[in-house]
């Protein structure tokens, strides 16, 4: 197949029709208030569309539609095989619309088109397929019980699931929620980030075309407000949230203030990537360390934002790392040869630049550090590396941008202590040739995912994904994700 060029994507962008309305009860609608907000592309600062700014009336309408569809059994009441068939059709439609969805995602979030076409959109379709394929194969249990009883342990859909998601992998993070939630038979209200609502809005129409009944899948764009209102809503049974730790804490409070809805949180990280002197391949480790923080402009919850490097190999390793960083040259994400696009918006870019300024005060800048391509009107920041110390602000707080903090250590115990001395516990990695050290360190690291001699691998659906500590609770992906969207029921039948 011929490789698509920058000109191809720019032409396609020029004629793209963009839907900005909410999707409620099977149809697109303006916000009840008539309010909208401008959806801006971080590539060049251009307004892409006016998007419905949903408020209380829209939230109530979407939740009511979801409740009605759930109670009617039009989805939950189907044989799982029937839900599977519809979900597979939906995923197929996402794949058929690969170019359009990828383009929307790139325009809206600034992500490289080479990633949105290969990771984000196919990944979302795959997630829907994976849970569709799983749902007609998972059964309940017949539990041991007294002879006069039959005891069943079954899982049932919870009811109305609200999914509130961030902007860094907009459609992919959303699919990690709606894939398992819909497969399990729930009705869903999805709230995308106001920074990146377009793909969520578009796939709603595809869901409808695939045969997902009205009310079962709703999309409510808007500022933080719909997220808060969903968190406080008494008729939402479960809220699955991916985003910052601060907002995650608020979501828990909303649940406590309202109906104790189930709360599942996938939150921030400050993940350590530990390189020991017996690292099997320093070149590969340096490339992986750069990818761990510069892929997706560093807007990754699992970003390896703390590089812990042993004193003995520090100089040679950092030289390789800086070389590897040069491969991430910010450019127009519509160009298929560009591997680093724009920061999602001006606010986030300024946040990142603020951290870089803070770093300049107490750390040594080794690479990058500047906003670039300003004449485009877009928001681009160079990959940036600081030699710093564990207590520096840039080494402790989640930046969510392309800024790496290098921390030096002398012993394994020190490395593990520094690695675990964080409020977060999402991911971690260690590089060593010593099998015993690898396993012992992996056990000691307090994180939901640990990589040994790699970073960010195992991207398929088989591994649960989520965090320890303030990185959240519950897990996305894998069959374990179904636990979040189902209630466990014991049914005891007395035979005589
Ligand atoms: P965020 O500011 O917490 O926002 C996440 C979502 O919550 C958005 O849809 C946002 O809407 C909404 N929201 C904002 N305020 C709210 C409130 N008071 N109540 C309810 N909802 C509210 O996070 P973000 O900046 O979009 O995303 C970056 C964060 O996500 C990082 O911390 C990152 O680590 C984390 N993340 C975690 C994972 C994981 O799996 N662990 C994956 C990806 C990202 P608006 O945007 O419209 O305000
Ligand atoms: Mg945007």
TrEMBL record:
What does the record give as the active site?
266
EC main class here is oxidoreductase
Q: Name the InterPro entries on file.
A: Ald_DH/histidinol_DH, Ald_DH_C, Ald_DH_CS_CYS, Ald_DH_CS_GLU, Ald_DH_N, Aldehyde_DH_dom
Residue ranges of the TM segments? none
User: Per its UniProt record, what PROSITE patterns does this chain match?
Assistant: ALDEHYDE_DEHYDR_CYS, ALDEHYDE_DEHYDR_GLU
Entry similarity comment = Belongs to the aldehyde dehydrogenase family.
Instruction: Give the protein's recorded name.
Output: Gamma-glutamyl-gamma-aminobutyraldehyde dehydrogenase
């Amino acid at each position: 197949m011929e490789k698509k060029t920058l000109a191809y994507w720019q032409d396609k962008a020029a004629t793209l029709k963009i839907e900005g309305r909410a999707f409620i009860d099977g149809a697109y609608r303006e916000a009840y208030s008539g309010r909208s907000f401008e959806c801006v592309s971080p590539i060049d600062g251009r307004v892409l569309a006016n998007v419905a700014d949903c408020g209380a009336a829209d939230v109530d309408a979407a939740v009511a539609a979801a409740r009605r569809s759930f109670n009617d059994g039009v989805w939950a009441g189907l044989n799982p095989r029937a839900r599977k068939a519809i979900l597979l059709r939906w995923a197929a439609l996402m794949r058929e619309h690969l170019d359009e969805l990828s383009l929307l995602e790139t325009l809206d979030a600034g992500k490289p088109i080479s990633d949105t076409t290969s990771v984000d959109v196919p990944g979302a379709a795959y997630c829907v397929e994976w849970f569709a394929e799983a749902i007609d194969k998972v059964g309940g249990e017949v539990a041991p019980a007294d002879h006069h009883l039959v005891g069943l342990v079954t899982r049932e859909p919870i009811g109305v699931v609200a999914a509130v998601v961030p902007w860094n992998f907009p459609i992919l993070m959303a699919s990690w929620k709606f894939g398992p939630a819909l497969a399990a038979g729930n009705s869903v209200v999805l709230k995308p980030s106001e920074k990146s609502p377009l793909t969520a809005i578009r796939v709603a129409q595809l869901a409808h075309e695939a045969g997902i009944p009205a009310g079962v899948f709703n999309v409510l764009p808007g500022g933080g407000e719909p997220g808060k209102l969903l968190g406080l809503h008494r008729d939402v049974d479960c809220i699955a949230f991916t985003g910052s730790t601060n907002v995650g804490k608020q979501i828990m409070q909303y649940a406590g203030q309202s109906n104790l809805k189930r709360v599942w949180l996938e939150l921030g990280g400050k993940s350590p990537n530990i390189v020991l002197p017996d690292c099997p391949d320093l070149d590969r480790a340096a490339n992986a360390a750069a990818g761990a923080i510069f892929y997706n402009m560093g807007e990754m919850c699992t970003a390896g934002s703390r590089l812990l490097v042993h004193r003995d190999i520090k100089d040679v390793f950092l030289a390789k790392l800086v070389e590897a960083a040069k491969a991430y040259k910010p450019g127009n994400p519509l160009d298929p040869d560009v591997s680093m696009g724009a920061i999602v918006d001006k606010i986030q870019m300024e946040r990142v630049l603020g951290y870089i300024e803070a770093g300049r005060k107490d750390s040594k800048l080794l690479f990058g550090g500047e906003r670039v391509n300003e004449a485009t009107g877009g928001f681009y920041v160079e990959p940036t590396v600081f030699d710093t110390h564990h207590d520096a602000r840039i080494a402790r707080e989640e930046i969510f941008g392309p800024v790496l903090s290098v921390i030096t250590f002398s012993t394994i115990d020190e490395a593990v202590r520094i690695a675990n001395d964080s409020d977060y516990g999402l991911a971690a990695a260690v590089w060593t040739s010593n099998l015993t050290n690898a396993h012992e360190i992996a056990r000691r690291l307090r994180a939901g995912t640990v990589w040994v001699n790699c970073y960010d691998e195992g991207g398929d659906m088989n591994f649960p994904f989520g965090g320890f500590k303030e990185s959240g609770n519950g897990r996305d992906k894998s069959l374990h994700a179904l636990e979040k969207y189902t209630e466990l029921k014991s049914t005891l039948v007395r035979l005589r």
